[in-house]
Specification:
By secondary structure, the protein is α+β, with helices and mostly antiparallel strands. The chain is built from 6 helices and 22 strands. The longest helix is centred in the N-terminal third of the chain and has 21 residues. The termini are far apart.
């Protein structure tokens, strides 16, 4: 009897040990806890590497293609005669200068982060282009040519002469059959860049830009539009809150490009300069100082410009002496005569404000 009880007790103990080994024990829970802890520790120690944004020097925005950053700036002189409109490539330029010429205006369109095939119509250069464009670090200069005085001066400058006669077919120059001469000469920026000298250098930034999240000064003025009287043409830039950009009109008609896209820019800088003359041609004095109106982010910031060295960019400062920063993106610079612009506040009917 005692032996039978002993065997039963041993059986019960063994059965209990077997049950314990088959059920979820505290040992298995502990093992899972150790595994989870090691995973959590690994996650906590993992670091994320942030790749810095490569910004285009002439827009302050992210470069669409990093491979283009090292190439030189390319300036193309584009016609604004009524027979030259609509133009090719104005919305692809990083910076566009509009300057008075003989009873009309002409554009110096600066390409770097992107190009345009074709671009034009291309017209002749002017003496004022030499100082106006000197800060772009020896840019390529695509133009149709000029008189002997202008041609000699441009070829002696730091710009790289890519005139029609110099670059010709290698630069993609051709006559567009849908236009009449001399308003039908076009070229291709992709081909013009291949003609850059081996020692050509990229441009330096021309403006300062606001950082992400940085706002315009609180004393800026809400802008509806600005009207500008240039030689032979009336210009208006209106703020488009839907597109967060300024859109352009000429002689009270929307100014569109060959793709029927309205000419637009996040920044419009109105630089007031003194114009002298060289023969029959106006000459903008872009070295010195004067008044500036900077339109950016739907606001107007008033101040002054200074440029004592043609090889250095313009410096824009507000009335408190702080540097004016632009919205990253493309910029148009209107090189106007004094008192030739009229600011239109937000909410005012543009038709009620005359051109100055």
């Amino acid at each position: 009897m005692r032996n039978r009880k002993s065997r039963n007790l041993v059986a019960l103990v063994v059965a209990g040990l077997v049950f314990a080994s088959c059920s979820g024990s505290s040992d298995s829970t502990s093992t899972e806890s150790v595994v989870d802890s090691s995973v959590a520790s690994a996650e906590e120690t993992t670091t994320t590497t942030t790749i810095p944004i490569v910004r285009a020097p002439l827009t302050g925005a992210q470069a669409p293609d990093e491979s283009v950053i090292g190439r030189p700036a390319l300036v193309v002189k584009i016609d604004n005669h009524p027979k030259s409109r609509p133009q090719w490539g104005l919305n692809q330029a990083d910076i566009v200068f509009e300057e008075n010429v003989e009873q009309l205006t002409r554009f110096a369109a600066v390409y770097h982060s992107q190009g345009s095939d074709p671009v034009g119509p291309i017209r002749s250069g002017r003496i004022q282009d030499i100082n106006l464009l000197a800060s772009f670090n020896g840019p390529l200069f695509a133009w149709s040519g000029g008189n002997a005085q202008v041609s000699a001066a441009i070829r002696k400058s730091t710009m790289v002469d890519l005139s029609h006669s110099s670059a010709n077919e290698a630069g993609g120059f051709r006559r567009e059959s849908s236009r009449v001469a001399p308003h039908n000469l076009v070229a291709e920026t992709s081909k013009l860049w291949t003609l850059a000298p081996a020692d050509a250098k990229p441009p330096v930034p021309q403006f300062e830009y606001r950082a992400d999240g940085e706002t315009v000064p609180t004393d800026s003025k809400p802008a509806g539009a600005v009207k500008i009287s240039m030689d032979g043409v009336d210009i208006m830039w209106e703020w488009s809150p839907e597109n967060l950009t300024f859109v352009r009109s000429q002689d009270d008609k929307p100014h569109v490009d060959m793709q029927d896209v309205r000419i637009n820019a996040p920044n419009v800088v109105v630089v007031s300069v003194v114009y002298t003359r060289s023969g029959s041609s106006p000459v903008a004095k872009s070295v010195g100082s004067g008044e500036v109106w900077v339109y950016t982010a739907g606001k107007l910031i008033q101040g002054s410009w200074e440029r004592l060295d043609p090889f250095k960019p313009f410096v824009f400062k507000d009335t408190k002496g702080a540097v004016i920063k632009l919205t990253p993106g493309r910029t148009w610079v209107e090189v106007i005569r004094a008192k030739s612009a009229a600011h239109i506040p937000e909410g005012i009917d543009t038709a009620s404000v005359p051109y100055p």
